[in-house]
Amino acid sequence: MHAVLSVIIPASNEQDYIGPCLTALFASPAPGAQAIVVANGCRDATAAAARSYADVAAAAC
Predict the structure, then answer these.
(1) CB of 37 within 8 A of CB of 17?
(2) In this structure, how many other beta carbons lie within 10 angstroms of the beta carbon of residue 7?
(3) How far apart are CA 22 and CA 2, in angstroms?
(4) Spatial contact of 37 and 58, defined as CB atoms under 8 Å apart
(5) What does the domain layout of the chain look like in residue ranges?
(6) Could you tell me if 2 and 32 are in contact, meaning their C-beta atoms sit under 8 angstroms apart?
(7) Distance between CA atoms of residues 18 and 2, nearest Å
(8) In Å, how far are 18, 30, 31, 33 from 60, measured between CA atoms?
(9) Which of 17, 30, 48, 51 could form a disulfide with 5 if both were Cys (CB 3.0 to 4.6 A apart)?
(10) pLDDT tens for each residue of 21-36
């Protein structure tokens, strides 16, 4: 069985920083890494930026 790394990332108005954060996560050596981005109440494109990554399980705003 392979271990899976799941990371929950709370984010609000972080469109400039969510991309580098996710890029670093997915560059990690952990197999099957996935992210769940909780972008609650944001007024920018944080959720859309997160959704552009294939390994993001969910991103809502």
Answers:
(1) no
(2) 15
(3) 21
(4) yes
(5) 6-60
(6) yes
(7) 27
(8) 13, 25, 24, 19
(9) 30
(10) 999 999 988 778 889 9
Alpha-carbon distance of 49 to 28, in angstroms, equals: 20
In DSSP terms, 10 is beta-bridged to: 38
3-state helix, strand and coil shares in percent for the chain, rounded to the nearest 5 = 25, 25, 50
Residue 20 structure tokens: 């580098």
| Predicted model pTM | 0.82
Q: Which residue has the tokens 């809502």?
A: 60
Any idea which residue has 């580098």 for tokens? 20
- Only one residue has tokens 């996710």, namely 22
Q: What is the pLDDT of residue 17?
A: 95
Nearest to 61 by CA among 1, 14, 28: 14
